[in-house]
Structures are given as C-alpha cells and as structure tokens.
Specification:
Elements (H helix, E strand, L loop, with lengths): L16 E3 L18 H13 L12 E2 L2 H7 L6 H10 L1 H5 L7 E6 L5 H12 L2 E2 L5 H6 L2 H5 L7 E3 L14 H11 L6 E6 H10 L6 E5 L4 H13 L6 E5 L22 H8 L4 H11 E3 L1 H5 L5 H7 L1 E5 L16 H12 L3 E2 H7 L4 H13 L3 E4 L2 E4 L4 H10 L8
C-alpha cells in the first residue's frame, strides 16, 4: 500500500491517510504537557481571552451570522478532495492483481466524514456499494443479507457499525461477515467503520488482523487551508476574519504593505478541542462566526463598497463561546444512552429501547433530555450525538470509565 508520503501534495495536501498506529492528535497550545481533558482546555481558552491587546467589539455588539451567510462563507465540507486523497493512498493496493490483503478498513470518529468519503470514492471509482442490513436483519442474524455479498465484485461497505447491535442476538451476523471478508472469500473490498464501533468490535471479534487506515487529525495549518478555501469561494470581495476581543487575524488576511499581521491562536485551540476531527472543527467554526447588526441591515446597500474594501467577519474568543454540556445530575442513564448511540453511530429510538437496561419510557426521557441540552439530535427517528456536543460527551464517558475510541 502507498505510504502517506506517496500522496501528491499538489493533488491533496490537506487530506492525509495513515495507519491507525500512526494517528496523532493535535498538540494543545501549552508549554508543559497536561492531561487531555476539557477542563484543562477550557482554562487555556480563558487564558487566551486574557491575552488581549485592545478590546474591539463587545459580545453584545455582534450577532451570529444568518444561515444564508454561513452557507456562503462556511458551506458544508466537500469530500471530493478527501476521496481523491484516499485514492492516492490506495494506489499501490488498487494496482495489485492479487493483493495479500483483500480488505482495507477506513476508521474514523463521529462526524469526521468516513461514510461520506467512502460514498464519494465509490462513485468516483464505480465500485459496488453494499447496502447495510436493517436492524431487524441484524437481530435475526439474517443469512440472506450475507449471501447477497457473494459475487466477489470490487465493493465498499461504508458503515460497518450498522452491521451489528450490542445485544446477545446482534453480533452473529457481523462475526460471520468479518470472517468471510477478511479471509478473502468476498473478493476485494473497503470497509468503513466508526471509531467507537471499531473499539468495541476489537473485543468481540478476534479474526485476522486487517489493514486499517484513518484520516490523519487536522492541525491548525490544515484548518486554515480548509476554511480559507471556503471563504475564497464565497465572494469576489475580500473577507477578513478577526478575533472580536483583540482584533488579531484568525485566517491570514490578504497581503498588504502594513507588515506581518498579528495572528490569533483560535484555530490552534479549535484543533485541540475538536481533537483534529474536521467535521467537529467545522461545526465549531460556524458557531463562532459573528457580524455587526448594521452590516446585516445594510446588506444590499453596501455591496459595492464591500467588493472594494472587503468585509470583516468577527470570530468570538473561546471565553465567549458556549458549548453544550451534560445536564446537572447526569449519571448512569445518560451515559447508557450516549454510549450506545456512539457505539452504533446513531440509531432509531425503537431499537435503542431494546438495547438498554432501561424502560422504554425512561429511554425516551433521556433522549429528550439530551436533545434539550444540545447533545443529541434526531433526523426522522434516527438519533445521534451532535457535533457540537461530541467533545463534552466523549469526556463524560471517558471520565466515567466507559470504553472510548482512540481518536
């Protein structure tokens, strides 16, 4: 398989894939090593707030960006470049007629784009996309789903976490599938797996050790490039991203004759808080963007002036950002629900009720409680941990001794 260094930087300089053993979290902006926890990071963020120059904008002078403007300057992540980077990483393996390892795993934490990247890659390469079994099929150990995977075409299964349920009856199907896939009986394939499911499955399946890759954690420099590309594609007029309390630039400004710009360490803090997860970082980035009310009120009248002079997008300092947190008194029941959601990368409430040692009414009560706190959300009946709430949820589960992922 191609090494990380084989990926051409001019084709995909941001999206880099490494063996899981080589995955590295971003360094927190501290001189001395501290234990990795949200409380430590929050103290660092408050210290950053104190290291201000001249106060420029009070929090009550600014407003969150309206949705239409967010979609223009911080749109949804485009996974095409990520898929191209994956293709470059897999180049040697793809060229081999009979590779030693017929199966490659791509593992990533929630909201990091693992499913989206593999879906995009599959479309680009015209491979076969395997459909995940339904929860009913998983619980029944449905052999029909397994027998459908016998044609040995090149295939991709983007979400392995949907092939099992943490239940006595919910593990048979995935064990049989992994045994067949990793023994080469299903031909050449790529399997995507959420990092929490990966941590769990390593304890319940002990077959042949597969090759597993991960999208390398995003550092500050990569976040700069991602967010700058978004802003550059938004408008012909220049955009200046500045921290509202001290005026320092969060993204490098257009070159001027004023000399080097003073830069904020906002994105370094963002990389550390998000643990290099680009999807989490993107959600937090959008949450921190601000504008002045008079700019919104004069949006139409000031278009020509902004094309010439540019527009300042203010970024709230960390001390002013409010992230979701666990409700007071949270304990075992909240942990049960959150941990199960992460182990399966989300699931319908109906099946969550079957997996938990809680009454159905108590399960739904916990879901609505977590939804109210901004930690869980639902799309139709599928519940997931939110990107903004994920850092707090991960820390809560780790502090309470639950199995967590390595990302």
């Amino acid at each position: 398989m191609a090494s990380t260094s084989d990926v051409k930087k001019e084709d995909s300089p941001v999206w880099q894939y490494v063996p899981i053993a080589d995955y590295r979290l971003p360094a927190a902006p501290v001189i001395q090593t501290a234990r990795n926890s949200l409380s430590v990071l929050q103290r660092l963020f408050k210290r950053d707030e104190a290291e201000t120059d001249t106060l420029l904008k009070q929090a009550d002078e600014l407003r969150m960006l309206p949705r239409w403007q967010l979609e223009r300057i911080a749109p949804a992540l485009d996974w095409k470049n990520a898929a191209e980077g994956l293709n470059a990483q897999l180049a040697d393996w793809l060229e081999q007629e009979s590779p030693e390892q017929s199966i490659i795993f791509l593992v990533g934490p929630p909201h990091s784009g693992c499913v989206e990247i593999l879906t995009t890659w599959t479309e680009q390469q015209a491979w076969q996309m395997l459909k995940s079994p339904s929860p009913e099929q998983v619980m029944a150990g449905d052999g029909a789903w397994l027998s459908d995977q016998n044609d040995q075409r090149n295939w991709v299964l983007p979400g392995l976490e949907k092939v099992y349920l943490r239940h006595a009856a919910g593990l048979n199907l995935i064990r049989r599938f992994l045994d067949r896939a990793c023994s080469g009986n299903l031909g050449r394939g790529i399997i995507g797996c959420d990092s929490w499911a990966w941590a769990f499955l390593r304890h319940v399946w002990h077959g042949r050790q597969p090759v597993a890759l991960a999208l390398q954690a995003f550092q500050q420099t990569q976040l700069v490039e991602i967010f700058q590309r978004m802003a550059d594609s938004a408008d012909n007029s220049p955009l200046f991203f500045r921290q509202s309390d001290n005026g320092r630039y969060v993204l490098p400004p257009p070159e001027t004759s004023e000399g080097p710009a003073k830069m904020s360490n906002f994105l370094q803090l963002l990389a550390a808080h998000s643990r290099g997860n680009v999807g989490i970082a993107w959600a937090l980035w959008r949450a921190g963007l601000r504008t002045e009310p008079d700019v919104l009120a004069n949006e139409d009248n000031g278009k020509e002036d902004r094309k010439q002079l540019g527009q300042t997008i203010w970024v709230a300092p960390w001390g002013q950002l409010k992230f979701p947190s666990l409700p007071p008194g949270s304990g075992r029941d909240e942990a049960f629900v959150l941990h199960t959601l992460l182990l399966h990368n989300g699931m319908p409430g109906e099946f969550l009720q079957q997996l938990l040692p809680l009454s159905p009414s108590r399960t739904m009560e916990m879901l609505f409680r977590l939804e109210g706190a901004g930690l869980a959300s639902r799309h139709y009946d599928d519940w997931r941990v939110t990107p903004l709430g994920y850092p707090a949820v991960r820390q809560f589960l780790q502090a309470n001794g639950y199995l967590v992922d390595q990302f």
